[in-house]
Amino acid sequence: MSQRRTADVIIVGASLSAAAVAKRLTDAGYETIALERFPLPRNKPCSGIISPRGHRFLIENFGPLPKEVLHDPTACRGVTFYFPGGVELPMDFDGGTTPHLNRTYSDYWAIKRSGVIVHDNLRFHSAV
């Protein structure tokens, strides 16, 4: 038997972006629920390189990054994009280094700290 629950906002997914939105909504007083398809923490193979601006946002909204949310090496100075045909485009970050996040754990850490109620290992089919 399923239980009915109401909320002001439902966020589908538990990524860093979802955590940022959830934080803003809960801080504004909205009852917010996040629904995640996979069990948390979930494997997230995408890059954990964030911009200095993104790093500042995380610290300002979620606090200092714990060691367990970082990859080794824990920081980087920029990225290089490699394109077909051998074209390389380096992009150094202004202002120094930025953390290299382990997205499996950083996303989970942020969504937990956002103040949102999280339900994982389920699917969202449609809104009524």
Strand content range? 25-35%
Describe the biggest sheet? 3 strands, parallel
Calculate Rg over CA atoms: 17 Å
SSE pattern, N- to C-terminal: EHEHEEEEHE
Key features of this structure:
three-stranded parallel beta sheet; alpha/beta; two-stranded antiparallel sheet; 128 residues
State the gist of this model.
The chain has 3 helices and 7 strands, in the order βαβαββββαβ.
Write the layout of secondary structure elements.
Elements: E1 9-12, H1 16-27, E2 32-35, H2 52-62, E3 70-76, E4 78-83, E5 87-92, E6 98-101, H3 103-113, E7 117-119
Parallel strand pairs: 1-2, 2-7
Antiparallel strand pairs: 3-6, 4-5
Any overview of this molecule?
With 128 residues, the chain is α/β, with parallel strands linked by helices. It has three helices and seven strands; from the N terminus they run E-H-E-H-E-E-E-E-H-E. The mean pLDDT is 89.
